[in-house]
């Protein structure tokens, strides 16, 4: 069984991400969750904070490690010894962008395969952006993100308001 990489911004990790990570961990011997260092986007959480939160929520998954990467995802996958990239698909609206990335990644590195996994039905309308907006507007994110991520999100939003 090849090793897999689950990449993303994870700003912050949601229950939808966790669903994909947990199911990927059942299918592959070793899984690396890869947090991108977004150079253009201005993330709410630093890359260290995002890695930290992921390590906490993946602590029950012994075959999952969390790392950050800067540069091309396929280079990182090769560096990890992984030949599969697993991405979650929520809706048709995700498809066009994901198809473009998968085909470009294949062109860049034909030995790395992208596999798509359908997200949990509960998470089909969930995204880190929506979760951040709810938190910023004072709504409850309970059930959308792991509990301690919700706590860190509320703290972060409070700091932002200062
Ligand atoms: O959670 P996101 O923001 O949808 O994740 C996007 C991610 C990290 C998978 C994507 O931005 C990525 O692969 N970035 C690394 C840079 C790269 O390899 N770009 C070429 C892809 S065609």
What does this structure look like?
- The chain is α/β, with parallel strands linked by helices and 162 residues long.
- 45% of the residues lie in helices and 20% in strands.
- The chain has six helices and five strands; from the N terminus they run E-H-E-H-E-H-E-H-E-H-H.
- It has helices spanning 15-27, 47-57, 73-80, 92-108, 128-136, 147-161; strands at 3-8, 31-36, 64-69, 82-89, 113-118.
- It has a five-stranded parallel sheet with strand order 3-2-1-4-5, with helices on both faces.
- The radius of gyration is 15 Å and the shape is globular.
- The protein binds 4'-phosphopantetheine.
- 4'-phosphopantetheine (PNS) binds next to strand 1 and helix 4.
Amount of beta strand: 15-25%
Strand order of the largest sheet: 3-2-1-4-5
Bound compounds: 4'-phosphopantetheine
- The unreliable regions are none
String of helices and strands: EHEHEHEHEHH
Give the C-alpha Rg.
Answer: 15 Å
Number of strands: 5
Q: Termini separation (Å)?
A: 49 Å
